[in-house]
Amino acid sequence: MIGALGADSRLDSTVIGDVVNTAARLEELTKHYNCGIITSEASIAQLNQPELFDLRWIDRVVPRGKQQAQDIYEVLGTATQPLNVARVLT
Fold first, then answer.
1. pLDDT in tens, 24-48
2. Residues 43 and 19 sit within 8 Å (Cβ to Cβ)
3. How far apart are alpha carbons 53 and 75 in whole angstroms?
4. String of b and e for 48-82 (b: at least 16 CB within 10 Å)?
5. Cα–Cα dist 78/51, whole Å
6. Exposed, middle or buried by CB within 10 Å (0-12, 13-18, 19+), for 84?
7. Percentage of the residues of the chain whose pLDDT score is greater than 90
8. Whole-prediction pTM
9. With the CA atoms of 58, 60, 65 and 67 taken in that order, what torsion angle do they form, in degrees rounded to the nearest 10?
10. Does domain 2-88 fall into CATH 3.20.20.105?
11. What 3-state DSSP class applies to 4?
12. What is the per-residue pLDDT across 52-87, written as a single tens digit (0 to 9) for each?
């Protein structure tokens, strides 16, 4: 759900929902795994051309506040943004 919250004198736009919560949890994991971008298998499944992305499986985790484990992947590069070779070797 997206909308504006607040009073007439001060409105802030916000987004709430399970998908937003999951994205926030994955973003928190970037610090733990020292990754620039972490994505879930569910997000990868939504890509029209997943072969254009260089992905590395990281782990199977249960994000904070969730009950089901999810496979998470680091996005290393894309067809237009070269692969970070140093990250692959670590």
1. 999 999 999 999 899 999 999 999 9
2. no
3. 7
4. eeeeebbbeebeebebeeeeeebebbbbbbeeeee
5. 9
6. middle
7. 48
8. 0.76
9. 160
10. no
11. strand
12. 999 999 999 998 888 899 999 999 888 787 666 666
HSE toward the beta carbon, residue 77, CA cutoff 13 A: 10
- The one-letter amino acid code at 88 reads V
Ordered by start, the domain boundaries in the chain are 2-88
- CB under 8 Å to 36, separation ≥6 — which residues? 30, 74, 75
Structure tokens given for 6:
């607040």
pLDDT band at 49 (very low <50, low <70, confident <90, very high): very high
